[in-house]
Write a structure and sequence with these properties.
single chain, mainly alpha
Length: about 100
């Protein structure tokens, strides 16, 4: 498979790569771009987890220390905290190897 397909039509490249993998046509794979994509997927998962953890911490701190706005923002912050925790649990359930990033 030509690597210029990756640059010209990303979705088609994905479909062709999937088909080649399913049919065990490994010699036809665009390995350089495939390796890059797999690496980026891992980075994306870690970045997503970091983002949710940061936002969770922000809301926990606001809830604990932002007394002047507590009454007005308490319900929203608690909802956000619940949503962030759920999102973090989903990420960890899908990629258990990210568990150490929670520490």
């Amino acid at each position: 498979m030509k690597s210029d397909l990756y640059e010209q039509d990303y979705y088609l490249w994905i479909e062709k790569t999937r088909s080649l993998l399913e049919n065990h046509q490994f010699s036809e794979l665009d390995l350089d771009n495939l390796i890059e994509e797999i690496s980026d997927m891992g980075k994306s998962q870690r970045q997503s987890l970091k983002s949710y953890l940061t936002r969770l911490l922000e809301h926990l701190l606001k809830l604990a220390y932002w007394q002047s706005e507590l009454e007005y923002n308490q319900r929203g912050s608690k909802n956000e905290i619940r949503n962030f925790r759920r999102a973090i649990k989903r990420i960890i359930a899908d990629s258990t190897s990210l568990q150490p990033y929670l520490i």
